[in-house]
Amino acid sequence: TRKPRVLSGIQPTAESFHLGNYLGALRQWVTLQDTHDAFYMVVDLHAITAGHDPQALRRRTRASAAQLLAIGLDPARCTLFVQSQVPEHTQLAWVMSAITGFGEASRMTQFKDKSAKQERASVGLFTYPILQAADILLYDTDQVPVGEDQRQHLELTRDLAGRFNKTFGKTFRLPEPYIPKETAKIGDLQEPGAKMSKSNSVPAGIIELRDTPKSAAKKIRGAVTDTGREIVFDEENKPGVSNLLSIYSVLADTPIPELEARYEGKGYGDFKGDLAEVVVEFITPIAARTEEYLADTAELDKILTEGAHRARAVATATLADVYDKVGF
Ligand code: ADP
Ligand code: NA
């Protein structure tokens, strides 16, 4: 039987992913390689919708792919590619835009949030969810991992797929949200109530997968904790300690109650020192493997070209069907 197909993407908008990206999303990508027919892409087309520097984009696209390989995505077990190398994404997006209502597109709350922060929002940022619909529908995707912020976009995708099917004949599979069992929401180390985020956190608030050991350890030791001295999980009253416990628990594969027991009667200093070691042990090999991939860009580009080739085998078939149905 066919394994369910899953598709997910991440923007190449930073030199490094952070621990929040990893624990909240990318870790799941690695797991899903075995249970699913997984398609993963670095979404560079999406990354140009809010202003960008071409050299930085090229560098970050490679850096993103290198990190995805470094955390354990295996091109033999998943299809890993760069979105702009599969032109069918933009071709299908145009067709989908023709059946999207202006009013329905205008209801996307993420655009409202993002455009409010910009002086001059682009049309590309506005139609971003339509490109996202095309990303998903091109591959007969069964499941899409989505956080709360992406739910509305997946609903739009389903609406557009259903509308196309009804108008032109059954073509698209309607994708379902995939709700991972365990995803950690990781807080900012300096402001634990807020999420760790490349756009909003100060450097000391985020652990990057490409941080040096020294820098990562310093950030953990300097993390904001709370008054009192007990190391217990209590998100409301001890958000800082709780966030560190969550990170510790996942990276050391140790249940939180076990950690609470281990640190009973000990101070924040011991706890943070140990966690710093755990974090450094985790990121050091990932950072090293990332540099290895980036040291041989010819080989890296070859892996990505091969991934795009496999993605296109599916995408061209879907687009041919769509073009035929709409009368091209
Ligand atoms: P950022 O907030 O740093 O800009 P993105 O919005 O690009 O990150 O998110 C990329 C992926 O990482 C998404 O799947 C998102 O849900 C996840 N993610 C980002 N930050 C966190 C976090 N602090 N905790 C858990 N997951 C996160
Ligand atoms: Na995602």
From TrEMBL:
Q: Which Pfam families match?
A: tRNA-synt_1b
What PROSITE patterns is this protein classified in? Answer: AA_TRNA_LIGASE_I
Motif 'KMSKS' region: where? Answer: 195-199
Q: EC number(s) per UniProt?
A: 6.1.1.2
The yes or no answer to whether the keyword Endoplasmic reticulum is present is: no
- Alphabetically list the UniProt keywords: Aminoacyl-tRNA synthetase, ATP-binding, Cytoplasm, Ligase, Nucleotide-binding, Protein biosynthesis
A GO CC term attached to the entry = cytosol
The main location is cytoplasm
Q: What class of enzyme is it?
A: ligase
Which reaction equations make up its catalytic activity? tRNA(Trp) + L-tryptophan + ATP = L-tryptophyl-tRNA(Trp) + AMP + diphosphate + H(+)
Q: Name one GO molecular function term.
A: ATP binding
Q: Where in the cell is it found?
A: Cytoplasm
A Gene Ontology biological process noted in the UniProt record is:
tryptophanyl-tRNA aminoacylation
Q: Where does L-tryptophan bind?
A: D135
Q: Does the keyword Methyltransferase apply?
A: no
Q: Which amino acid positions bind ATP, per UniProt? A: Q11, P12, T13, G20, N21, G147, E148, D149, I186, K195, M196, S197, K198, S199
Q: Which InterPro entries match?
A: aa-tRNA-synth_I_CS, aa-tRNA-synth_Ic, Rossmann-like_a/b/a_fold, Trp-tRNA-ligase, Trp-tRNA-ligase_bac-type, Trp-tRNA_synthetase
Domain of life, per UniProt, equals: Bacteria
Q: Tell me, what does this protein do in biology?
A: Catalyzes the attachment of tryptophan to tRNA(Trp).
> What family is this?
Belongs to the class-I aminoacyl-tRNA synthetase family.
Q: What does the subunit section of this Swiss-Prot or TrEMBL entry state?
A: Homodimer.
Q: What is this protein called?
A: Tryptophan--tRNA ligase
